[in-house]
Amino acid sequence: MDTFPRLLLDHAQRRPDAPALREKAYGVWQTLTWAQLATLVRELALGLAAAGLRRGEHVVVVGENRPRLYASMLAAQALGAVPVPLYQDAVAAEFVFPLNNAEIAFAIVEDQEQVDKLLELRESCPQLKCIWFDDPRGLRHYDEPGLASLDDLVSQGRAHAVERGGFFDAEVAAGAPADMAALFFTSGTTGNPKGVIHTHATLIDRARAGQRFDQLTDREEVLAYLPPAWIGQNIFSFSQWLVCGYVVNCPESASTVSIDLKEVGPTYYFAPPRVFEGLLTTVMIRMEDASAPKRWLFDRCMALARRIGPRRMDGEALGLLDRLAYALGDLLIYGPLRNTLGFSRVRVAYTAGEAIGPDLFSFYRAIGINLKQLYGSTETAVFVCLQPDHEARADTVGVPIDGVEIKLSASGELLVRSPGLLKGYYKNDAATREALTDDGWYHTGDAGFLTPGGHLKIIDRAKDVGRLMGGPFDGAMFAPKYVENKLKFFPHIKEAVCFGDKREKVCAFINIDFEAVGNWAERRNLPYAGYTDLAQRPEVYQLMLECVEKVNADLAQDELLAGSQISRFLVLHKELDADDGELTRTRKVRRGAIAEKYGVLVEALYAGKVSQYIETQVKFEDGRTSMVAADLRIVEARTFPAVRSAA
User: Fold this and answer.
1) pTM score > 0.70 for this model?
2) Which of 266-270, 455-459, 486-490 has the highest mean pLDDT?
3) Domains detected in the chain
4) Is 388 exposed, middle or buried (0-12, 13-18, 19+ CB in 10 A)?
């Protein structure tokens, strides 16, 4: 059981009728057992072999989480081929480099949208000869060479089942743990993405390490709703799924995730901070619309939860009155809130991908959700550090788990060595040599340190951590992501970008959360004509100023980061968007690209201007472009003296 196809066949033999995958279609959950999945994978593999797929070749897989796409990845691996998942929301041009870099001739996609993208690229990627689709809607009249449905591929596999009787089993047996299992392309924040090579051994080892750490069983329920191309989702809903044998549930669509989350009631949950931010924003919007007595009760119960909830989750002893008060709060507020969020059955919940704001982290633990942080990356197969159940802290990311070694370079960069490290970057020896040392250490690019208790604390990306120059905080550390996360805790702020390295003060761009601020404005009878109009309302600026100054007051309590207080800010006239090159597909800020694109705004912040006119081109989902223009106000924020710690 040292390759993924062998893990699949083991489950199919030992527990053939147990559910492996569920998919919601037309409002009804459909179940695929392990035996049915094994049969489907066998037929798909035979079909792919008949189409010409050979050991060592690559197959691109694009789409939402769908059982037949998962089966297709397993089918490719059974033949010794390599699945290459790509982001389904990427524009067609973003596929060109991965397709050509990995010399991909075969593609398996979800629907018409993805088919159209690949057909558009045939001139740029002439080697792409076969495209199979899962959902036939809208494709009835397509007549393109090499285009067919997955149903056709399955039928072709069945037709070859008799004449190639032992072929599938022989191919699975020929697989080895050191074989390449998947190729994951990074976000490419500073250039072309890099293809990260992972073997069956690296992915399975880390999946098993995570299984042991949290004592996962085949009784877990997981909701797979994040992009399969992100290794975080891939580990939780593919690698660990095959190692543990639990059930993976695929939502009907992106718009039904919140409903499906409540129906499934996952026991094992994973999401980046932006998802938890969005859920909290929804809660706060609903509470703002509630009656005065309900808001009063919510505020009183949440004050109690913030005081004792995290201590309760950490297993600390509480007084009788606190226990009774929390039990009453759980009956009236926390329990119904967990149910509304879909977290009633969650035993373990993780957040990763980027740092989570401490206030956001504490909120979920306060209401009784076992939210923990983990640290890892695409190159480390995710699992490097995890937080034990009773040692979850907002400012650390856990302890190194089985097989992981950690050390810090002289510059404070974190280095990792573990059995889950990438084999290398595909066709990029220079990048591989830069990332991996001769004795097996991986340069993470993160700045951090180990606490006396053995927990890892990440400050920021090493390249982003800077120093202020001049002004009252001359020489003070500047950690932009830390400040941005504090801003994003407020439900009215969706995104923030801070600047300050080698400057005398910190300035910021802010994106409002259109839904939250729109709801806030409507309750105050404030008219607006769209995002740009709403973002520039004086009342909205006052709301943002209050948020910024609360963050500044909090930062002033941290002697190390007091210099990172925000002196001036503006509210952007458009939402930062991956299609406009401002965010990665995992919604990480492309800081350099934003600083370059909006250089005139950055300079206006530091030049002392009170406003700045700007025009920006935006791209719509259908490929059209338009210009958005606005005269942006620039506001001064109050900063506070640093609180000195006692000697």
Assistant:
1) yes
2) 266-270
3) 4-187+217-261 (3.40.50.12780), 273-461 (3.40.50.12780), 466-636 (3.30.300.30)
4) middle
